[in-house]
Write a structure and sequence with these properties.
Layout: H1 24-35, E1 48-57, E2 74-82, E3 97-105, E4 108-116, H2 126-140, H3 146-166, H4 170-178, E5 191-192, E6 197-200, E7 206-215, H5 224-227, H6 234-244, E8 248-256, E9 276-287, H7 291-296, E10 308-310, H8 314-330
Helix pairs in contact: 1-2, 1-8, 2-3
Bound molecules: protoporphyrin IX containing FE.
The site of protoporphyrin IX containing FE has 29 residues, from strand 2, strand 3, strand 4, helix 2 and helix 8.
């Protein structure tokens, strides 16, 4: 596969090491041990599907960036996913849901957005995130007899408490996450990019921002009575059926930072009264005829076009290395 096709936005070595010495390979080894994904699936966000979409800009960010994909009408594909490493994950229970967007020019990727239904990320280091993945996997892995399950659950609660003691920064993210019910539809969920990036204008002025994808239908959570009537993998079928009746749309919103807002820590929210700028609308049209081909690609949060720059956030910087290892393993 060629560069856009493939896998990563540039030739990322996959042996990046965190400050505490964890490599991307070690991170993926730990995710695999905890979550036991199937060999050809993504190591996280295993079940998903890719949809054709169009981006229509509002013009509001034209003065802040020279990125043409944000200022002209652009073709895109979008992958919606359940965050679990398990292909048979249950959409009816709380968990991560993802929305990943690839802006295209002549069918080739120019930039990606990768967002999830967190308001802030529950970790500010890659290790913190992997510790949480392990604790969460323990909590959902409980099977066997009732007594076995009770024992596993108690052990899992202990594990999560241990992670929180070691990573106090995880508390805020987990608290806001636990307070929410699972979404009733991929089309009624808000997805946040969580990391800071910079918009860069033609003169080189930089402005820090975070992005979010806000459903035009509003946020609708799943009610327990309705959940019991649904299949565990209802979300993709629900979206396909909804799209038969017409497109569903999201507003791409940029939250602009002000002096002092951290740009290297995704576990800290910026004040909600910071300016929110609608950059454009993403209209999701239909399941992509090239779904199987796009499934093989990587949606890489560090794939940015001229006019957008990455922050120094260590979690953001680590992600392409981890995604690259996941992609390499699932494609062999
Ligand atoms: C150190 C932190 C993180 C690690 C190690 C990690 C790991 C992974 C891995 C291994 C994959 C599968 C990649 C592939 O095979 O293509 C993945 C996918 C994904 N991750 Fe992360 N992730 C991290 C942080 C985040 C954050 C902060 C977000 C949300 C802003 C996020 C949202 C997603 C989404 C939406 C996907 C699915 C993308 C797709 O549909 O292809 N991840 N992640």
């Amino acid at each position: 596969m060629d560069n856009q096709g493939s896998l990563m936005s540039n030739d990322m070595p996959d042996d990046a090491v965190t400050v505490d010495g964890m490599t991307a390979r070690q991170a993926i080894d730990r995710i695999e041990t905890a979550g036991r994904p199937r060999p050809h699936d993504r190591r996280l966000h295993a079940r998903g599907a890719v949809y054709d979409a169009r981006f229509v800009p509002t013009g509001h960010v034209a003065g802040l960036t020279r990125a043409t994909h944000l200022t002209t009408e652009t073709e895109a594909v979008i992958r919606f996913s359940n965050g679990s490493p398990k292909i048979d994950a249950d959409d009816r229970i709380k968990g991560i849901r993802g929305m990943a967007v690839k802006f295209l020019s002549d069918g080739r990727a120019v930039a990606d957005l990768v967002a999830a239904n967190f308001r802030v990320f529950p970790s500010n280091t890659p290790e913190g995130f992997i510790d949480l993945v392990e604790a969460m996997a323990a909590a959902s892995a409980a099977d066997g007899t009732l007594a076995d399950r009770a024992k596993s659950k108690i052990a899992a609660v202990g594990k999560i408490a241990g992670v929180l003691a070691h990573h106090p920064e995880s508390r805020a993210g987990l608290k806001t996450f636990i307070a929410r019910q699972p979404p009733a539809s991929f089309a009624t969920c808000r997805y946040d990019g969580l990391h800071a990036f910079f918009l860069v204008d033609a003169e080189g002025h930089r402005r820090a921002f975070r992005y979010r994808l806000v459903p035009q239908l509003g946020e609708i959570e799943l009610e327990a009575a309705h959940a019991s009537t649904l299949t565990p993998d209802f979300l993709l079928g629900e979206l396909d059926a909804r799209l038969n009746a017409g497109p569903v749309s999201f507003t791409l919103v940029f939250q602009l930072a002000e002096e002092g807002d951290p740009t290297n820590d995704p576990s800290i929210a910026w004040p909600e009264h910071r300016p929110l700028l609608p950059a454009g609308y993403l209209h999701v049209q239909r399941r992509s005829a090239r779904n199987d081909e796009w499934e093989r690609h990587v949606f890489d949060p560090t794939r940015v076009a001229p006019g957008v720059e990455l922050s120094e956030d260590p979690v953001l910087r680590f992600r392409p290395h981890a995604y690259s290892v996941s992609a390499e393993r699932r494609s062999t």
